[in-house]
Amino acid sequence: MVVVGAGAAGLFCAGLAGQRGLKVLLVDHSEKIAEKIRISGGGRANFTNRDLDVRAPQRHFIGGNPNFCRSALSRYAPQQFIDLVHKHGIAYHEKHKGQLFCDGSSQQIIDMLLAECEAGGVTRWQPCKLGKIVFSAAGDGTSGAGSYRIDSTRGPIETPRLVVATGGLSIPQIGASDFGYRLAEQFGLRVVTPRPALVPLTFGGDAWAPYAELAGLALPVRIETGARKEKMAFLEDLLFTHRGLSGPAVLQISSYWKPGSPLTLDFAPGVDVAEALAEAKLRSKKRIANELAALVPSRLADAWVGQDPALQRPINEAADKALAALAERIARWQIIPSGTEGYKKAEVTAGGVDTRDLSSQTMESKQPGLYFIGEVVDVTGWLGGYNFQWAWASAHACATSF
Ligand SMILES: Cc1cc2nc3c(=O)[nH]c(=O)nc-3n(C[C@H](O)[C@H](O)[C@H](O)COP(=O)(O)OP(=O)(O)OC[C@H]3O[C@@H](n4cnc5c(N)ncnc54)[C@H](O)[C@@H]3O)c2cc1C
User: Fold this and answer.
1) pTM recorded for the entire structure
2) 209-254 pLDDT per residue, tens
3) Whose CA is nearest to atom 30 of ligand 1?
4) How far apart are CA 8 and CA 75, in angstroms?
5) How far apart are CA 19 and CA 121, in angstroms?
6) How far is the C-alpha of 73 from the C-alpha of 57, rounded, in Å?
7) Is the shortest distance between the CB of 194 and ligand 1 below 6 Å?
8) Is the Cβ atom of 165 under 6 angstroms away from ligand 1?
9) Is the CB of 2 under 6 A from ligand 1?
10) DSSP letter at 388?
11) pLDDT, tens digit (0-9, with 9 covering 90-100), for 311-366
12) Is 388 in the pocket of ligand 1 (CB under 6 A)?
């Protein structure tokens, strides 16, 4: 068996398959493998999420068929990966909402996966670039079996099973490529148009000018997009940047955001701002910005109040209508992003090999002997360790199917 891509999914799949007795060759075009694991989680790899809902794991994932990932994720749960981390003596901690990080560094996860490959007798070729790939059906071509002949910079390779684990398009400077999508298309499989996800959002032109001075400000918000059945909301931290919005709240919502549609933000979640301002008007002679600063960070209060001359006064002199409008702009601020920061800043790529052309049990495609695992598949997780959990679970589903 040949696995292309020595990242999270490829390394894990190769090690498992090798330990199950398969002869495995793992190839990667980069000199340095698993670069995304190395840079993940701020260098500490948020390697899984303990809060993954084992009864409905698909809740934390998006894709053309959100239920596709259910089988693999319920057969390889976070606890199984945690057990492996324990076995390798890696210390870890929970940071926020079930997110597990290494105490030391993400290199420990890479070393663990390499040790698992070693235990499985996996042969590794890297850097090794792949060229033309041709499939020859065995016998009369109706049995389903056959083999792949692959040209590579280390010579020709022949294999009945080809596993593609080449990931998505984000962070092209560390080895991302469209290899998986091109190969899928070569064999007539459908590909859902890739797009950056878990990515900061931008607000072009002059519209952002009044907010650019807030760059660096972070605060907890409720953020929402979509309507009716497509509505999605997160309660997370927001970060103002020079070009737009970032932070966990925006990364999470970016995977659901559709170009042209608005985001709605509540800067004081859980607080009735209208009532708080009306009550302050009855008892206080302080300026409105000062009263608002009791509810939201003062930089935000100054910026919001500064936009309206009717609000540059003591709160007891403010018109009820002006206070109500201010409360609405704090609790339901609507803004339409002009775009995203793109693959250069995206943590993942949404879209990918269409799950309608893959088996949710084994990850084999409709093309016999050709498998796709990890981020190259149209399955995208939330921020917080879910994407690695998908890499482990899809790799496990594939490796245990042989
Ligand atoms: C900055 C950043 C931080 C992240 N932090 C987290 C986190 O903390 N938790 C989390 O769950 N997820 C995180 N992610 C997402 C996570 O890294 C990916 O979802 C995960 O690595 C996907 O695994 P994969 O094996 O499918 O692909 P990758 O890990 O990207 O591996 C793909 C491999 O394929 C190789 N390859 C590509 N093209 C070719 C080719 N043509 N020929 C041969 N080899 C090829 C690449 O060199 C690479 O080694 C983060 C991503 C980024 C960018």
Assistant:
1) 0.96
2) 888 899 999 999 999 999 888 899 999 999 999 999 999 999 999 9
3) 167
4) 18
5) 7
6) 6
7) no
8) yes
9) no
10) H
11) 999 999 999 999 999 999 999 999 999 999 999 999 999 999 999 999 999 999 99
12) yes
